[in-house]
Design a protein that fits this description.
Number of helices: 10
Strand order of the largest sheet: 3-2-1-4-5
Bound molecules: adenosine monophosphate
Helix content: 25-40%
Order of helices and strands: HEHEHEHHHEHEHHHEEEE
Number of strands: 9
Length: about 280
């Protein structure tokens, strides 16, 4: 991988990288398509990174449909698929980790201790191996994207991050490899995250700015779904992911919930228009 990327760099080509854990769906493919528009070569990595999974998380049962993934990437005409092994990435004695302080301790980081340390470490390694000009991430994992952005800035990396919109199923459920775990009943219930975010949009358009009221609206929707158990439902600053009292600058409404045994996350980006008179909600 290093050799291939080095050759491309020597030819002054613009390298795009799309890091994934595989089980590719339309959300991943949207990143690939965007990268293809802006870069050549485009490399996709598939690596089920063990260091970002907790001891009781779903690493062993995470879907690994490699053949189907290769077919999708071939059809999308990516220039290379990088498939590192766990031993290659974490050889015996590996002991260097990246910790983006503060941001990594909140929300997803609080619920999944060590998760972002694993994410930041593997992404920095991928960046070092490929040295892409652009790297593509989904807004579905907004906190992750922000942490990588912070890491890139703090460590003077040359890569530019491109954050792409969340791709959803027809009923609003954000696409995720983990949706495959849901049985039909849970699959129906899983739209509750989207519905909770829609409730925020409705309150905002009615002029509500107080985050307690907005959180209450989210929790009310989540509480009405018997198959769902809320982990967090908050309104946070889009840069720090710290809670805010009022929506008066760019924020995220973020939600995480268990649907059966599957943990799902989603968010809505809240941006000021006309000096905070109006708020644009992007789901
Ligand atoms: P993953 O394979 O879950 O690690 O995801 C790889 C990349 O795809 C990450 O940057 C995710 O944010 C992004 N991604 C996952 N699901 C979606 C989606 N529904 N829409 C857009 N991007 C997504």
């Amino acid at each position: 991988m290093k050799e291939k990327a080095r050759e491309a760099r020597q030819e002054q080509r613009v390298i795009g990288l799309v890091p994934t854990m595989g089980a590719l769906h339309a959300g991943h493919m949207a990143l690939v398509e965007r990268a293809r528009k802006e870069c050549a070569p485009v490399y996709t990595s598939i690596f089920l990174n063990p260091t970002q999974f907790g001891p009781h998380e779903d690493l062993s049962k995470y879907p690994r449909p490699l053949e189907a993934d290769v077919e999708k990437l071939t059809a999308a005409q990516v220039d290379g698929l990088f498939l590192p092994t766990s031993e290659g990435m974490y050889p015996q004695g590996f002991s260097t980790y990246i910790h983006v302080e503060g941001l990594s301790e909140r929300l997803e980081g609080k619920s999944r201790p060590g998760h972002f340390r694993g994410v930041a470490t593997v992404v920095l390694k991928l960046f070092e191996i490929v040295q892409p000009d652009y790297a593509y991430f989904g807004r579905k994992d907004a906190q992750q994207a922000r942490i990588i952005q912070k890491m890139a800035k703090d460590l003077n990396l040359d890569v530019e991050l491109v954050i792409c919109p969340t791709v959803r199923e027809a009923d609003g459920l954000a696409m995720s490899s983990r949706n495959a775990y849901l049985n039909p009943e849970e699959r129906r219930a899983a739209t509750v995250l989207f519905r909770a975010l829609k409730a925020v949009e409705k309150e905002l358009s009615a002029g509500v700015r107080d985050t307690l009221a907005l959180q209450h609206a989210m929790r009310k929707v989540l509480g009405g779904e018997k198959h769902a158990r809320v982990d967090y439902a908050e309104i946070v600053d889009a840069e720090t992911f710290e809670p805010v009292v009022r929506v008066g600058r760019t924020c995220y409404a973020v939600v995480a919930a268990w649907v059966g045994k599957t943990r799902l996350i989603d968010n809505a980006l809240l941006e000021m228009r006309d000096g905070a008179e109006e708020i644009a909600v992007t789901l």
